[in-house]
Amino acid sequence: MKKINSLRAAWLPLVAALVLAGCASSAVVPPVADVPAQFKEQAGAGAQPVAVAQADGPWWHVFADPVLDTLVERASTDNTSVQQAAARLAEARALARTADADRSVQLGVGAGASRQAGIDRTTDGRPATLLTANANVSYELDLFGRLSGASDAASLDAQSREALLRSARLLVQAEVAQTYLSLRALDDERTLMRETVEAYRGTLTLTERRQRAGDLAELDVARVQAELASTESDAVALDRQRALLEHALGVLTGQGASAFSLPATDWASALPVIPAGLPSSVLERRPDVAAAQKSVMAAQARLGVAQTAWFPSISLTGAGGYASPDLGDLFKWSARSWGIGALLSLPLLDGGRREAGVQGASARLDGALASYREQVLVAFREVEDQLVSLRLLETQSTVQARAVTAARRATALSDSRYRNGMVSQLDLLDARRSELRNRRQALQARSARFQATVGLIRALGGGWEVRPPQPLASAPVVRLSSSAPSVSAVE
């Protein structure tokens, strides 16, 4: 009796320590990132309107373009990248259910037949037949959190995949919007090139008439012919660019390039000004940052699981059924059999396997933390990039609008003076080249503002409640603020 008491006194502290160690496993907490008080591009701009977060909000409606709305909504479901991300999410959820199933009672039934000799000495070495039919039940006691930790890690992986699905959908939506807006910008640029080609043809007709009358030399005709051919070549290059964008848009919306077409039309999309809000809202809205955060938490949970390898595992088992040498007697009450058991397993010497597992899990956690920090840094960089782009592009567009106005005036004056013989044809061609160059640069600056706006929406995570602007024929700029939006027309 004293021996039993001494053994109990020796083992109870160890068992208590193991239980406490299991209960004191590290909790899974989200990582914390350093967030600036405001974006650098908003310094000195006063209070900024805060965008209200809205999961998977239709942010593309701010452009007030029904064709864009249709394309983005189609791509959100039919794009192959989105479908792949959805399949990976379904797989992660299935793995999470598998990990969670290990925490439940396991029940199974079985039947067997065997013939053996030499094992049961009561048969005098003669072969004997044994038929069995039974049910088995097992349950592992999760005293140290190994199973719950694995289940939590799998669940966090599924949440990370869900965030990656939202990230893939947002990326595809942004690509569709940028491709579509680039295509519409090319439509306007092609219209400009056709107008320029017609103007050069008119100049060529006038020049050839004056050359036949002896007022101009053949050199003047050759100059106009060269300008006309060069402009026609640029127009063909724009046609090629548009065709490539149209094909890309078809693939983004889940359609074949041969079956997709988008007729050219006037570019009447509205240009909104998106409120960046507070930097902390970026971490709340960006799905890729949320995915990286969930990956860190899953790595934390797996580190806890690796640490539980030092503790024993305890399983409870039970079986009940029938066993008989004759099939006719198998299910008789006298042939019943049952058994219960408990199994405790604790490796003592494993060659450093458990320590290596803990070190590997710790290294994966360090990598996940570094990846999360990188994702946060990239998120803030993308926001700053688009904010500075929009600020400078707005200034560029204002300056370029003045250049277009001056170039148009110069062309009109040069054309009038050329018709009256007061300037040379070379002066007129130079004026027209200058006007064409400035008008194309104005279109490209406007297109760049649309691209940067979509880029800012994607950098901010998309999906907030805004008041959609009304489309105007003069391509309005809509400024969203806490008060009523003000609308100003731009070229």
Automatic annotation (TrEMBL):
<keyword id="KW-0175">Coiled coil</keyword>
<keyword id="KW-0564">Palmitate</keyword>
<keyword id="KW-0449">Lipoprotein</keyword>
<dbReference type="Pfam" id="PF02321">
    <property type="entry name" value="OEP"/>
</dbReference>
<keyword id="KW-0812">Transmembrane</keyword>
<keyword id="KW-0732">Signal</keyword>
<feature type="coiled-coil region">
    <location>
        <begin position="426"/>
        <end position="453"/>
    </location>
</feature>
<keyword id="KW-1134">Transmembrane beta strand</keyword>
<dbReference type="InterPro" id="IPR003423">
    <property type="entry name" value="OMP_efflux"/>
</dbReference>
<dbReference type="InterPro" id="IPR010131">
    <property type="entry name" value="MdtP/NodT-like"/>
</dbReference>
<feature type="signal peptide">
    <location>
        <begin position="1"/>
        <end position="27"/>
    </location>
</feature>
<keyword id="KW-0472">Membrane</keyword>
<comment type="similarity">
    <text>Belongs to the outer membrane factor (OMF) (TC 1.B.17) family.</text>
</comment>
<protein>
    <submittedName>
        <fullName>Multidrug efflux system outer membrane protein</fullName>
    </submittedName>
</protein>
